Amino acid sequence: MKKFFSLSRIAFILPILVMVIFAAIIKFQTGSWIAVVLLLVSSLLSSIILNTVSIFSIINNIKQFENSINAIKQGDFSQTVDVTKSIGAEGLARGINDVITDIKALLQNFHNLSSSILESSKTVSATAEQAANAMNDISKTMDEIARGASDQAQQAQHGVEMVDNLSEQIDFVYESYSRITEETKKINDLNNIGLDSVSILRKKSKENNETAEKIFAVIEKLTNTTNDIGLFVESIESIAEQTNLLALNAAIEAARAGEAGRGFAVVAEEVRKLADQSRKSTEEINLLMKSIQEESQLAIESMELMKKMSQEQNIAVNKTDSAFNDIANAITNIVGKINEVNQAVSKMQQDKIQVTSAIESISSVSEETAAASQEVAATTEQELQAISEMQKAINNLVDLVNILNSKLNSYSIR
């Protein structure tokens, strides 16, 4: 910077000295002061212009340095001083840039180191947390084992008492076996009687079905016959109507014939009356046939219902027969199972002493297991406490690293 200011002074003074020398030469040659004054004024203006340019260059350099320093003050190390624009202050610009580069490298190293520490801390923290969880699980498991062993010892003692009670119950079961066998024989006899009754019921049901089928066939035949009679009655009714019309026509013709057709008119009237009586008779027959058809339809519906009930009865009989057969099979199985139970009871009486001895041994081992489990649980609790302290220290380290990263992130190095 001093070099820059020295060059500026030389640039300002040197033109003035040169102009003074030229002015003296001109004055000596011409003897005119006007030329001397003009020369001095022009040289002074030139010096002022050069000096002004130098001052602006200095101001620009100062502003550039000030901007760089302010950026560094704000934590922004991404900006550098443009050496090409630092006329006369290139060394200072390079020095500032070197300082910025060194600080950026230092900040980057700090950032990399803190990131590495943070990742390592997280890994250690996760490992410690897994270890703590594992120790918690182990502690809970050991507590459960201790409680289970203690409960097992109590249950083993209770088992000895239960075996004694079971022995008494076995004797009672053995005594009850004979009575159950006798009752089973009675049930089997009753079941055989039930099967015979069902067989008789099935036979009677079959006979009823056959009778109902015959009645149904007769009623159906009667219905068909009444339908045929109805057709005949319709034919008679049609003939009666035609006869009535013919009688009317004959009476009309007889009336036209006058006295000669009077006898024929009497016959025609009798024919008409006979036709009218036939019509009335057919109407009565129709009413009677409709009544017969309705009764036949009711009989058919009743037979259908009876047929359906008979089918349901057959189904019920079959189910009852199947149930009695199932009961018979069940009784057979029960007898077999009772024999197996009898053999098992005899075997249980033989094994009772060995079971009692084994349960007493289990009780002793369970007590020892409970004591060992309690010791392991206490040791696990101490290790768990140590892991907890280590986790606290790791968490404190992570907090410090996060604070450091927060500070480092406030600096811009790119």
Automatic annotation (TrEMBL):
Q: Which SUPFAM superfamilies match?
A: Methyl-accepting chemotaxis protein (MCP) signaling domain
Q: Classify the source by domain of life.
A: Bacteria
Alphabetic keyword roster: Membrane, Transducer, Transmembrane, Transmembrane helix
State whether keyword Transmembrane applies.
Answer: yes
Q: Name one GO biological process term.
A: signal transduction
One Gene Ontology cellular component: membrane
Q: Which SMART domains match?
A: MA (SM00283)
Q: The Methyl-accepting transducer domain covers which part of the protein? A: 127-377
Transmembrane parts of this sequence: 7-26, 32-59
Is Flavoprotein there in the keyword field?
no
Q: Which Pfam families match?
A: MCPsignal
Which PANTHER family does this one have?
A: METHYL-ACCEPTING CHEMOTAXIS PROTEIN MCPB
What is the protein name stated in its UniProt record?
Methyl-accepting chemotaxis protein
